[in-house]
Amino acid sequence: MISLGMGVSVSFAQDIEPQQEVNIDDLGTVSDAFQEHFFTALQQKAITNYDKAIEALEQCIAIDAKPAYLYFEMGKNYLALKNYEAAERNFVRVLEDEPNKRHVLELLFETYFVERKYTDCVVVMEKLVPFNAMYKEQLANLYFLENRYEDALNAVDELDAAFGDDKYRQKLRRRILQRIDNPDAQIAKLKKKIEKQPKEERHYLNLIYHYSQGDQEEKAFAVAQQLLKQKPDSELVHLALYKFYLDTSKTKDAIHSMKIVLGSDQLDEESKQKVVVDFLKFVEKNPQYESKLTEVIATFSESQLPGSIFTKVGDYFYAQKNKIAALNFYERSLNNVTQDFERLKRILMLQMDLGRYEKAKYGSEMAIEVYPSQSILYYINGSALLQLQRYEETIEILDLGVDYIIEDPTMEFDFYTLFGKAYQKMGNTNKATQYQKKAEQIHEKS
Predict the structure, then answer these.
(1) Is the pTM here over 0.90, yes or no?
(2) For 54-65, what is each residue's pLDDT tens digit?
(3) Closest-CA residue to 193 (of 175, 176, 206, 174)
């Protein structure tokens, strides 16, 4: 998957078939010297000596410059060397003789793509679509990048018609619609599609999205109601309804729609997260509905909802200084925050504040494996061990962590204070006094 910027990406590797290697039967009638040089080229390429492979191929060309496979092999070696101009030149040379050679087209596309020659990419991809209809998805991305929004939208429509709805294409469609110059034409087109296919859910949803983008919420709501009449069991329509209900203070209906959205297997994590974020904003202005927020989220397990949603709700309660609720939701999202150091640290601190020392000990141990140079994690682990009356282990972990303190007097003070407390609990008053004096000296300097 290669990023094109602006949230657009193209993957060419997943659809490219294994490259065909040339074997002796493909060479045709050639001299022994030609054959020897050619297989030397293949051997050198196999051990990544691409320059030597090119030299051997040049010797082949000196003997007989006609075979197209020579230029195909030259192109592959130049591509491996990232000499894209030479790779392009050789692939184009092959296509002069064999204009629809799939493997050559794929590698030429890859070359153009790396060179950011997107207009040329489009030309090649259009030739590849007949080989695999899913190339059209990549083509839609390229049309988008080339500001050919109508073409991009048509390609997405054709894919949806052929293969059904797809979460990735839903996102792509939204990006396209945000750039479209003539929304009225698209609206008219969608209305005609609804007339022809009144049971096709995606046409209604696309029209709802169009109206929502143009701040025509009443029209969007009317289309949603129209869809509900056609498909009373629709889950996707509630992605539009919940927001309308929130905006019109129909809170009970909004909560009903929100539960359907969060429980739907048809909606992606991003859509579900948006629903929760919108409801959090509503609750901030209407705190009397805070209990409803908890009630809704509590009905789903960690396996039913993405961890990011529990994290968002945890953030809300943390901002409200509701430590117990914040920690409860954070702990349900732990798998989602292992790569988020600040939030992970917040969870550990909350566990300490709320006396959940065994969890803080275990969590900080796991965190140290991920972030071995973060001194705060050793301090938290030591603090938890101290509370659990495991004093020798407290000293051991503090000894490990103190070396990671860099120009942080506050952390040094905390470490030495904790050292002193641990030694005091162990009955070693000399060591306790020694560390307490160190802590006092740091405090006086800062």
Answers:
(1) no
(2) 999 999 999 988
(3) 206
